[in-house]
Amino acid sequence: xxxxxxxxxxxxxxxxxxILKKERYSVDIANDGQSGLEYALTDDYDCILLDxxxxxxxxxxxxxxxxxxxxxxxxxxxxxxxxxxxxxxGLDCGADDYLTKPFSTGExxxxxxxxxxxRGAVDINPKYGxxxxxxxxxxxxxxxxxxxxxxxxxxxxxxxxxxxxxIVTKEQFVKKIWGYNDESEYNNVEVYVSFLxxxxxTLDSKVQIKTRRGIGYxxxxxx
Length: 223
Ligand code: CA
Description:
Layout: E1 2-6, H1 10-22, E2 26-30, H2 33-40, E3 47-51, H3 59-68, E4 75-79, H4 84-92, E5 97-100, H5 105-118, E6 127-128, E7 131-134, E8 139-142, E9 145-148, H6 151-162, E10 168-169, H7 170-178, H8 186-202, E11 208-212, E12 216-220
Parallel strand pairs: 1-2, 1-3, 3-4, 4-5
Antiparallel strand pairs: 6-7, 7-8, 8-9, 10-12, 11-12
């Protein structure tokens, strides 16, 4: 899953980014409202953490604009204690939830899980054929065997499972996992697919990652 953090306190934004990466989320950070809006409009995120007081464009304006543009990504507002009124306005503008600063890591993660679950973005432990992706431990389980995955491998398999049966293009992988506009990463997709194939083979799983030449990849072996 990919999360956008729009927060102008650079230390806080980076701390949130580090926490989320440790939990195997992909993260992009924007430090002002205008660039945050630009990122958010790509519609590549599963959740947006949005500060209210931001330079260039305030968080509530960013949120209203997104909803007008029919971008329905779950938004969690990050608010200071003094901004109670903004909190209410925010919920009226289409925010899904809010967190009052300072918040604990546990609370942040729980709110993200709740917001993405409500939108149906994730199954807690995604399954396909004989494999289950164990979100907490970052492992694939197949029968009584399991194997741990690197962060990128994990994100790629998660994306393949959530599109089960359908093709995921290289472009979709790059956008979701490496981030917006990073074309230098196209070749890495193949490398990570080959890592994943080896791990599936080690598990004796019937699930295979098929190449659709010139298009992308899809899972096979559900039956
Ligand atoms: Ca701020």
